[in-house]
């Protein structure tokens, strides 16, 4: 087995790990990055399918994501605006297709008032939440012991209002049913974006895309680090260290490498920590914490057409409905492409349901749902692809891990706490930028800074 000596080992070549490695190398540290996959990027992945670029993972940039925007500029990557000209589509409970502009859906006046009232209440609560420490809120325990569904029920009896507000957090972000996470977890999600109003505003939260795809961030970071630093297809099996002799450092073992270092950064989703054996075992607190975190589940559906036909109908491509299989969809046409691409999302329990079908039946049902927004032409793409992160061995869900009921207030403060020479960094534990690339970059920077400060 080959043995390497270095200063810091980073496990995971996603945005967090590569950012940490870049910062450490710039400060003069020797670094090795070990990645289980045969590619860099983690939950960022640009796929080429018959000449069609599809962003299988994360892809959008919003104006508040300072760390990501700085990184894009530093790497020389250009962005372009998501197409949003024309009217949006909303499907009502009875299947009626309604066109609208702006952020608020075309619902009955009473429901609209309830939606606006809920947004106002949530914005007020979010303003009290520090996204870096939501557990510090005076009512954290109380808010973490009530599900978001139950909290919504205490605020309104309007079912359509509850479904629509829930959709922005549950379907669009945490990708879990509203009964499966707490009000505090919902408030953290909104606080991480600056406000609940930002989550409602698709033109804000889904503002820009990167020319050539967002995976170029980790690709360019890895290229700068070099092949001698970034080592692919190296799943880590064991981490050994001595609590009695911290100066002895840490040994990280893969199937073909043994890397000796002073420190190690786990830059992967917390649900994957258990894939590694630790000698000595991680403390009880970490074991318990990790058992209260789980990934959400969403299918990201890509449908490519000869032309963006919906634009000819005066549609923006933006579509929503809490009653549809695809609860949201957007014009996802690539920069400079004459073809048109739609991207739609099927979340949580709905995603469970369609995966009980054959691939052909699942595609037909999903395209049928898209046709309710865009018409019969939506049923006939030239390319159809489903991003199923739940089946990825080194991801196991999307978009990020969140706590079960009561877990955030109970364990949140321990998420980033180092264990001996082991530090943690990923978007799943970010405050600002939580579950986004921006948060991954922030956590990578923080882990590197903590190591450099000793």
UniProtKB/TrEMBL annotation:
The keyword Oxidoreductase applies. One of its GO terms (molecular function) is oxidoreductase activity. FAD binds at residues 35-36, 236. Its cofactor is FAD. Substrate binds at residue 345. Residues 16-452 form the Amine oxidase domain. InterPro entries: Amino_oxidase, FAD/NAD-bd_sf, Flavin_amine_oxidase, Flavin_MAO. Pfam families: Amino_oxidase. Keywords: Oxidoreductase. Belongs to the flavin monoamine oxidase family. This is Putrescine oxidase. It comes from Agromyces mediolanus (Corynebacterium mediolanum).
């Amino acid at each position: 087995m080959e043995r390497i000596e270095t200063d810091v080992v980073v496990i995971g070549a996603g945005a967090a790990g590569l950012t940490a490695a870049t910062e450490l190398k710039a400060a003069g540290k020797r670094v090795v990055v070990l990645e289980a996959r045969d590619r860099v990027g983690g939950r960022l992945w640009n796929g080429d399918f018959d000449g069609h670029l599809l962003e299988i993972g994360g892809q959008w940039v919003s104006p508040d994501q300072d760390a990501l925007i700085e990184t894009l500029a530093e790497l020389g990557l250009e962005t372009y605006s998501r197409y949003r000209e024309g009217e949006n589509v909303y499907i009502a409970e009875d299947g009626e297709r309604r066109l609208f502009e702006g952020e608020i859906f075309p619902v009955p006046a009473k429901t609209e008032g309830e939606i606006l009232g809920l947004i106002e209440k949530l914005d007020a609560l979010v303003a009290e939440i520090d996204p870096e420490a939501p557990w510090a809120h005076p009512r954290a325990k109380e808010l973490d012991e009530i599900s978001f569904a139950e909290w919504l029920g205490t605020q309104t009896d309007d079912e359509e209002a509850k479904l629509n507000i829930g959709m922005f957090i549950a379907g669009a972000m945490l990708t879990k049913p509203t009964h499966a996470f707490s009000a505090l977890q919902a408030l953290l999600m909104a606080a991480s974006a600056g406000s609940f109003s930002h989550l409602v505003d698709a033109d804000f939260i889904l503002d820009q895309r990167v020319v050539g795809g967002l995976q170029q961030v980790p690709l360019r970071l890895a290229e700068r680090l070099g092949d001698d630093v970034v080592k692919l297809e190296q799943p880590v099996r064991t981490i050994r260290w001595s609590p009695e002799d911290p100066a002895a450092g840490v040994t990280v073992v893969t199937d073909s490498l043994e890397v000796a270092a002073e420190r190690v950064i786990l830059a992967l989703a917390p649900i994957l920590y258990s894939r590694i054996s630790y000698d000595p075992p991680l403390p009880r607190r970490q074991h318990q914490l990790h058992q209260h975190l789980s990934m959400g589940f969403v299918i990201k559906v890509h449908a490519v057409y000869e032309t963006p036909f919906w634009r000819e109908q005066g549609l923006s491509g933006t579509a929503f409905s809490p009653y549809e299989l695809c609860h949201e969809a957007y014009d996802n046409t690539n920069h400079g492409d004459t073809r048109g691409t739609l991207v739609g999302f099927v979340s949580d329990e709905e995603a469970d349901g369609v995966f009980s079908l054959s691939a052909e039946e699942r595609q037909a049902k999903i395209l049928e749902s898209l046709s309710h927004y865009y018409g019969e032409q939506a049923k006939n793409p030239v390319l159809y692809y489903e991003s199923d992160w739940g089946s990825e061995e080194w991801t196991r869900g999307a978009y990020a891990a969140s706590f079960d009921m009561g877990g955030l207030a109970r364990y949140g403060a321990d998420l980033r706490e180092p264990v001996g020479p082991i530090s943690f960094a990923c978007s799943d534990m970010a405050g600002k930028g939580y579950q986004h690339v921006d948060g991954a970059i922030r956590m990578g920077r923080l882990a590197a800074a903590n190591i450099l400060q000793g």
